[in-house]
Amino acid sequence: MTASTPLFERKGAYIPRIAAVHDLCGYGKCSLGVAIPVLSAGGNDVCPVPTGLFSNHTAFPTWHMHDTTEMLDGYLQAWKDVNIDIDAVYSGFLGAPEQCDSIRQLWNDYPNALRVVDPAMADHGKVYPTYTPELCQAMAGLASGCDVLTPNLTEAAIILDEDWHGQNISEDEARRIIEALLEKGAKNVILKGIDRGDGIIRNYVQGEQNEFAETRNELLPYMLHGTGDLYASCLLAAIMAGKTLLDAAQFASDFVAEAMVLTNEQPDFRNRGVSFEPLLGKIAGLLSA
Hints:
Elements: E1 17-27, H1 32-41, E2 45-56, E3 65-67, H2 69-81, E4 88-91, H3 98-109, E5 114-117, E6 122-123, E7 126-127, H4 133-141, E8 148-149, H5 153-160, H6 171-184, E9 188-195, E10 200-207, E11 210-218, H7 227-240, H8 245-263, H9 269-272, H10 280-284
Parallel strand pairs: 1-2, 1-4, 4-5, 5-8
Antiparallel strand pairs: 2-3, 6-7, 9-10, 10-11
Helix pairs in contact: 1-7, 2-3, 4-5, 5-6, 7-8
């Protein structure tokens, strides 16, 4: 096992294609609204697979959702019919349990594609309002067979069918959780959001080609919607640029922290979502770093 083996080898001028399986949110800067600009800035061809259409994110008291499940079979079949090739399948927020079948179909159709699962379904001990127990169970099933899994502590507890014990866990407990997720079939895991009350936010990385390691950043005194989507998108941008998983994890953590500081300077910053647009040059810089 080594900490220095990249998960994707970037070759020459080739632009990788990424199937981004997320919802599209009109206001609030999350999901595809984050994945498309971030991954595009990293020199990737982003091919959206919309799992739902939202007027605004669900942290607002009211919102409208349109479920796209019924269109996905025909949508993905058309890709096969015109011989589209895919280098990575990156999934996040889903709208129905059946959409997990669509992701598995993508995995089957593109067996050489990198499989990245951000199991966006819960945080701080609470499941998102559109997630049913059936959808949580189906999402948990995607942990089996993915190349990279990026749960927070709440999502990890759901996947492992365990109780959530808060954000303050020891390094030994983080190891236990990651090893249990690896046992379920994920090849590499980044466990996010460990807060021991010392002003540091920690993530832990371990997997098939990555020794157990920690990334750390200053814990800012406010929460923002969409930081998980930004983290996973930055992580994948760095991976597709040929960075190791640990280097990609630290890059993503640093980027999100800087974006959160920038967001704090914007009006209505707690509702509008994380502001990252002026920082996209750092994503583009991955290709020359």
